[in-house]
User: Fold these one by one.
Assistant:
Number 1:
Amino acid sequence: MQVIETIDGLRSARRALRGRVGVVPTMGALHDGHLALVEQARQDNDAVIVTIFVNPTQFAPGEDFASYPRDLQRDVALLQGAGADFVFTPTPALMYPPGFQTYVKVDQVTQGLEGDRRPGHFRGVATVVAKLFNLTQPDVAYFGQKDAQQVVVLRRMVADLNFPLEVAVIPTVRESDGLAMSSRNAYLTPEQRPAAGVIYRALVAAAQAYEEGERTPAHLRQVVKSVLKTEPLAEVEYVALNDPTTLVGVHEASEHPLLLSLVVRVGKPFLLDNCLLPWALNTRAGLSATLGV
Ligand code: PAF
């Protein structure tokens, strides 16, 4: 496995590759969720490029850009084990040199949910991912279900800007109590960590209600909120039901699949999670067919 720090180095490594190339864009602080993306990329492709870049433009002032967990040595060792061929680790100065002024703005699907909670976030994500696609020229790019709106935004960008690649969505990898793996889980104290398990129990309760025939969005949200309420350390930021293709909010009962997403604060971190309803859609095939365009 080769670690590449320059754009020229990446371009010449990419030029030498033949066959299908998979890319896994990350911000490092890797966990088993990232490694599942790399392992899937390994199975599907002839070569795998992983990028590690804590992207300053997707953090608002006051967010955790400076303190975001970073451990390149550990990440590189994990990626070697997972079968990556190349790891691209640019600096902010390389990605955003002086004079940089071109951004990618995806309109409607960046509104609501994380787009409202983190203004400017998806402009930063879309911009850096467009740059990473141009640099790595993959056939397939791998992203996790946990950041479902990010998937919808990037699929829209890929369709609208004619990037010649497929966006693959891999189901959320969970801890034994169901907590979605996330680099920001590291912010949880030993007291807060068990409390965060309530998030998965809330999603499962909604999925069960849906299975039993509940379709009214307000009732499904109430099921989620009543489970979250049982945990005093959990502060609900939002619980939302949206159309998984357009992300338009859903307020009337219907038989169309739903994206149930929530953000809950436990101590310092805001923890994101989601599922598709019906629950059976939370597979790679179900997500790929349902989430975004
Ligand atoms: O999901 C992430 O880790 C980031 O948003 C991404 C896609 C690597 C862009 O910086």
Note: The first strand starts at residue 2 and ends at 4.
Number 2:
Amino acid sequence: MNEFFPSVGIIGAGQLARMCVGPAADLGINLLLLAQQSDDSAAQIANHVIGDYNDVSTVLEFAKKCDVVTFEHELVPLSVIKAIEAAGIAVRPNSAAFVYSQDKSEMRQKLSRFPTPEFQVITSAAGIEKYPLIAKSISGGYDGRGVWKITSKEELSKLISEVGKVLIEEFIEFDFEIAIMVARSPHGQASTWAPTETVQVDGICTMTIAPAPRLSEELSAKAQKLALDIAQELKIVGVMAVELFVKGEQLFVNELAMRPHNSAHWTIEGSVTSQFEQHLRAVLDLPLGSTSMTSPVAVMGNILGSSKIDMYRPYLHLMARNPGLKFHHYKKDVRPGRKIGHVNLLGASVVELVQEVQHALDYMSGEVDE
Ligand code: ADP
């Protein structure tokens, strides 16, 4: 033991916390997780306490064991985060920044000086004449849940009668979607990684390609500057994903996620410093690491649950076929459509990497057997 190393508390023990475990161990940083159950993805491999993140006294008791507290999801009530702050314990990002990842209407208002889709918060369809449009629940959505494409006033009225207040947005016919991961420390040091194209199917990200191959150099620089400016504006501490739509030469900010994000899982092998290590460095106010890529291209494929349950056996074929594939399993129960792991592959050719990663995904889901 060496008592000089700090303890970082993470609220949540899913795969994002799990992927912080390796970097924390390398740096000698103590991790303590607030898990819901002992078989949560990260709780299987790291120190944890079990408790409800909605309960102020549970979270306070947990936070008192930590030098700094962070979280891996946006579901922690703002009141709980404020209670930790009131107890004098550092929460990163803090409540003033966190609110923007929890409440889509606050986020849209705060980002009004940045290029975003036109938006409105409504409780009635009266006066809304331009369709199609995108409607979003104000909070709690993920993986396309809580996002609806609305084609008529009737549909909008029906949705409002079911969910109440919604955020509506101009429907952007974008060419493709990208995400920029940015990290910022309390000192104000900030860095980004290469912009990443995210391929979505039915609202779920299935694959990412970094650097985004269809993005011009000029737009790439612009997108990174945008992410750094937003991080500075919100005084975010830790990592944050800025999801953007690209349409021609225009960028539109779609969403923010103030935590490690699926779009930057490639950084585990594809960058000198992964998003998980960088998040730990940032919340501890350590100098940030290099975000240079370790190869020209990095492709990540999400392993989604299918009818195939044995996720170990596919290693035999896939590891033999391609020794470059890097697997990251979250050890979650396999359920159809659930993100249960991902695979990374580095190289020089986008086409070849995408093909190989797609083959690995198809093999694991049982769609191909050789
Ligand atoms: P979540 O991250 O909660 O799943 P998003 O806000 O990212 O929700 O929306 C999910 C998907 O819906 C996006 O990836 C995009 O494909 C589509 N989408 C969201 N907003 C718009 C918009 N204004 N115009 C067109 N498509 C949109």
Note: The first helix runs from residue 15 to 27.
